[in-house]
């Protein structure tokens, strides 16, 4: 049975190693996406004009009035002191062609004192230029920049499946790391003095054992991030009732109908303020977005600059029908069924933000460790592959039966150092 598990671990590891190497390194970077992006692109983040800032709603009005091609789809309701206010935009329909205007940007940075656009970029563009680098890495982390095909987000599904394989492989790896009760101490040790293959082996096996629990959390949450609706929510609902997701439930949201109006952002913010007080939410509405294809507004409740949710289970969100103002649903951290809270905790765990700055430091370290485990696993596999090929060549050049009978008998195992025999057994 152990031999079969070794084979499974080997092929699961080879199949996912490159994906996990990329995901680990990019995850270590994007734990600090806002800080790194601001350091690389100060003109996109730092406001040019001193003075009192206009509200996000007023700035959105000015942007849309200045450029009728664009529709603001997401904006914070206030800018951080000294910073630009960054909005997401989409093209409106050109009445002459009945097709969307062609834009080469979907994110803008607005001077909060004047409403002037300081910078534009295509968030997530396949580009390594300074202005695009951090969004490029962020999108690479969970999609590999693979395109939609037949209405399917191939990259999201691929990385979700990689997470599932990684989850099962982590369980197998833990069992293989402890071949016997007598050898358990060696499964936690690192032979730094020997270096070379011995250290590579220890980094892969013992390193994985020391942080196994964290690896399982990251693997599970990566599946939840990419495949929540098709995989995770159906499984969780087998054990606990889940409140319907207002964004991914066709019984709740709907596409716009002919003649539908759209309530103003101001009206939705007013409804959000009233709903927030009714729910005893301590923070005010902090950001609003409009999903045109769902005809839905979403409002997040957070202090200025805390749109990611820097501690705990994240920010509350509520959703309204854009035509009627009907409340469609809400997601209040810490409230709901056990299944609801399980789903709420996935992003805070995956990003490390559940523990604040300390959690982000930890998740960066785990990302680097995942890359190291992937690289050392490939090195071990390549070494053993070369060894098997060498053994096959030697077998073809083996002496005849009579020559073998005349030769002294020496077992290969007797020539192996004790630790090498253990490594062969483990792998």
Extract low-pLDDT stretches: 410-422
What's the overall average pLDDT, rounded?
Answer: 90
Order of helices and strands: HHHHEEEEEEHEEHHHHEEEEHHHHHH
Percent helix: 40-55%
Any idea what the radius of gyration is?
A: 27 Å
Strand content range: 5-15%
End-to-end distance: 13 Å
Biggest β-sheet strands, sense, barrel = 8 strands, antiparallel
What class would the helix/strand composition place it in? alpha+beta
Organism: Paraburkholderia graminis (strain ATCC 700544 / DSM 17151 / LMG 18924 / NCIMB 13744 / C4D1M)
Protein name: PepSY-associated TM helix domain protein
Pfam families: PepSY_TM (PF03929)
InterPro entries: PepSY-ass_TM
Can you give keywords for this protein?
12 strands; two-stranded antiparallel sheet; 13% strand; 8-stranded antiparallel beta sheet; 427 residues; PepSY-associated TM helix domain protein; single chain; alpha+beta
